[in-house]
């Protein structure tokens, strides 16, 4: 079930089965005196994407709702792929979304404890050192329809296992030569229970523990035990881990440690969007985008740079809902919530993306009027500002047609239109370049229509934005479109790759836009609505004398239409 009700404004109001479950456990005090404890466990091998925002909202939102706490835990058990840069960006992004963790934890801090517990399992006859190669282990594992085979090393003595494991840890053996496996059941219908690997040998430098370890725990062994160490009561993860749940429980039961429990929910999938760190890393490494925070990326840092707000992302995630089956959510729904949020908070401004000079022949040369304009009609507290008006202004090229098609109500020779908050003007003549392109339009204005209303009740069919030419500031404008051309980017013809679905027109750069002068004071993170054009924000590439604005979204909301179609 997808909840598309725009009124459900955050994760705490939308109903979901995880909340019901935690509410029940809190009511019955299932974990005794222990408070509800959750964790958000990213692996620091990339930047967070909007899929992670769903997990974050659930982990933090639900704990908070029941008076519990949430740890941020780095699941850093793969030294080769993990970096401090990712650790830093993840913390920044969680905070940006609006959450603060109780404790900052690292699975790597638990390496000594995990090692002790591994020794304990060996001593209990529940784990053994296996000398089979990775390929052999795969062959011996069997398939969904065939049981696995016992490794010839499965029945080593406890003493031999202890000796070998300690020597693995001491660095006596090369990478890949041995592993430690849990001794469970090679005939289990669940492949995860067929003696899963607990430790592998890897002589790699870890971003935190350096060269202290040359054996590293596997996800399945590290995760549940880390949960248990932190007294996590509800360990929420995505559905692909459902099959791992028996193993999660097995380790905890064998060790007799805090009984953390795992619950699964559906991954967030969004149309035209790739949510996989590995694939996003590929886009960055192959320079298909300008970096992890490229505004076309579905990373939280990309959304932030593009001008999306944490409020809208949280609202969207809540509305997309939680369930026990994977589905896909329309990207238009995310955009709808973002427009809704920006409409309320964005300061209005006038900006002309494709300028065309308009000269008002009967307006006094050298005269400048300051027009008082509301900063946000949706928010009376946003105040007003003054915008200069003068004889030569810029309008959008699209707002003039020398030979207007039927139903074209904007400016054309002999037609009268309103310049927003200013005057009525009537086009009179054009100036063309050698190629026949209109480069300047001449018009006359009605001085009595000041403020945008005619004294005799005359109506015009169009209101246009404008920028005074003498006062305009120039800017580079970056327009973004979907990064992928296919609703499901991982759907590609045989022999191809998801890269074939990249949209070659996802970025368009305009270099000659003309902006009202107040935008020279725009600050990073401040949202603007360029009237009639869209939502924009300043880009960090801005430098002295070179303003760069990103289009967050156009104004057109296609979600209402999609929703109507779905309902019909
Ligand atoms: P990716 O496949 O993109 O690398 P991951 O699951 O490997 O994602 P982790 O860093 O391990 O990334 O994820 C941390 C948490 O975020 C996990 O609990 C994971 O289940 C959750 N998560 C990751 N992707 C999504 C998603 N698309 N929707 C909801 N939760 C997600
Ligand atoms: Mg992962």
Short overview:
This protein is of the alpha/beta class.
How would you characterize this protein structure?
With 568 residues, this protein is an alpha/beta fold. Among the domains are: 111-219, Glutamyl-tRNA Synthetase, domain 3 (Alpha-Beta Complex), CATH 3.90.800.10; 333-348 and 474-567, Ribosomal Protein L25, Chain P, CATH 2.40.240.10; 351-472, Ribosomal Protein L25, Chain P (Beta Barrel). Helix content is 26%, strand content 22%. The chain contains 13 helices and 25 strands. The protein has helices spanning 17-27, 50-65, 84-97, 111-123, 134-141, 158-170, 219-229, 245-255, 277-285, 300-306, 310-320, 331-345, 559-567, and strands at 37-40, 69-74, 104-106, 127-130, 179-182, 197-201, 215-217, 234-238, 261-265, 347-349, 351-352, 355-360, 369-374, 384-389, 392-396, 416-419, 424-432, 438-446, 463-464, 467-468, 473-480, 507-515, 528-530, 534-538, 547-554. The strands form 6 sheets. Strands 10-23-24-25-21-22-11 form a 7-stranded mixed sheet, covered by helices on one side. A 7-stranded mixed sheet has the order 19-16-17-18-12-15-20, with no helix packed on it. It has a 4-stranded antiparallel sheet with strand order 4-5-6-7. Strand 23 (528-530) and strand 24 form a beta hairpin. The longest helix is centred in the first third of the chain and has 16 residues, at 50-65. The protein is elongated. Residues 1-9 have low confidence and may be disordered. Bound molecules: adenosine-5'-triphosphate (ATP) and magnesium ion (MG). Adenosine-5'-triphosphate is lined by residues 41-43, 51-52, 54-55, 75, 237-238, 267-268, 275-278.
């Amino acid at each position: 079930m997808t909840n598309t009700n725009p009124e459900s404004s955050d994760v705490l109001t939308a109903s979901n089965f995880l909340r019901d479950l935690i509410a029940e456990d809190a009511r019955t005090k299932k974990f005794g005196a222990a408070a509800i404890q959750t964790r958000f466990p990213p692996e620091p091998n990339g930047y967070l994407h909007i899929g992670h925002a769903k997990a974050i909202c659930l982990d933090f939102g639900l704990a908070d709702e029941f008076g519990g706490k949430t740890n941020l835990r780095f699941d850093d058990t793969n030294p080769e792929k993990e970096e401090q840069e990712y650790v830093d960006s993840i913390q920044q992004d969680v905070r940006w979304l609006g959450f603060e963790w109780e404790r900052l934890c690292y699975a790597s801090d638990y390496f000594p404890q995990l090692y002790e517990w591994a020794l304990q399992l060996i001593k209990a006859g529940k784990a053994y050192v296996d000398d089979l190669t990775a390929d052999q282990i795969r062959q011996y594992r069997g398939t969904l329809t065939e049981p696995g085979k016992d490794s010839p090393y499965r029945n080593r003595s406890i003493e031999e296992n202890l000796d070998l494991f300690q020597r693995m840890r001491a660095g006596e053996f090369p990478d890949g030569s041995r592993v430690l496996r849990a001794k469970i059941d090679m005939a289990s219908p669940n492949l995860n229970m067929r003696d899963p690997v607990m430790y592998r040998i890897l002589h790699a430098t870890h971003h935190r523990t350096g060269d202290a370890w040359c054996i590293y725990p596997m996800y399945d062994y590290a995760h549940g035990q880390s949960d248990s160490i932190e007294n996590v009561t509800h360990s929420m993860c995505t559905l692909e881990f459902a099959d791992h749940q028996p193993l999660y429980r097995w380790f905890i039961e064998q060790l007799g440690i805090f009984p953390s429990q795992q619950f699964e929910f559906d991954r967030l999938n969004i149309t035209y969007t790739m949510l996989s760190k590995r694939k996003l890393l590929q886009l960055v490494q192959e320079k298909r985008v300008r970096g992890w925070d490229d505004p076309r990326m579905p990373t939280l840092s990309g959304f932030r740079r593009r001008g999306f707000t944490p409020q809208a992302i949280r609202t969207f995630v809540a509305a997309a809902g939680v369930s026990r089956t994977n589905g896909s959510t329309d990207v238009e729904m995310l955009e709808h919530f973002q427009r809704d949020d920006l409409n309320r908070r964005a300061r209005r401004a006038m900006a002309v993306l494709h300028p065309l000079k308009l000269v008002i022949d009967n307006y006094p040369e050298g005269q400048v009027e300051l027009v008082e304009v509301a900063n946000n009609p949706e928010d009376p507290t946003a105040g007003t500002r003054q915008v200069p008006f003068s004889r030569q202004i810029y309008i959008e090229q699209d707002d003039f047609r020398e030979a207007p098609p039927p139903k074209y109500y904007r400016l054309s020779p002999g037609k009268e239109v309103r310049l927003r908050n200013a005057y009525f003007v009537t086009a009179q003549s054009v100036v063309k370049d050698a190629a026949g392109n209109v480069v300047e339009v001449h018009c006359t204005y009605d001085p009595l229509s000041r403020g945008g209303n005619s004294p005799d009740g005359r109506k015009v069919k169009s209101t246009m934005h404008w920028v005074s030419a003498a006062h305009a500031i120039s800017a580079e404008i970056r327009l973004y479109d979907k990064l992928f051309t296919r609703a499901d980017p991982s759907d590609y013809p045989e022999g191809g790759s998801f890269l074939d679905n990249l949209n070659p027109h996802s970025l368009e750069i305009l270099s000659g836009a003309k902006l009202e002068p107040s935008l020279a004071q725009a600050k990073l993170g401040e949202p603007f609505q360029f009237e009639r054009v869209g939502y924009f924000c300043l880009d960090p590439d801005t430098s002295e004398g070179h303003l760069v604005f990103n289009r967050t979204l156009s104004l057109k909301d296609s979600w209402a239409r999609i929703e109507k179609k779905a309902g019909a």
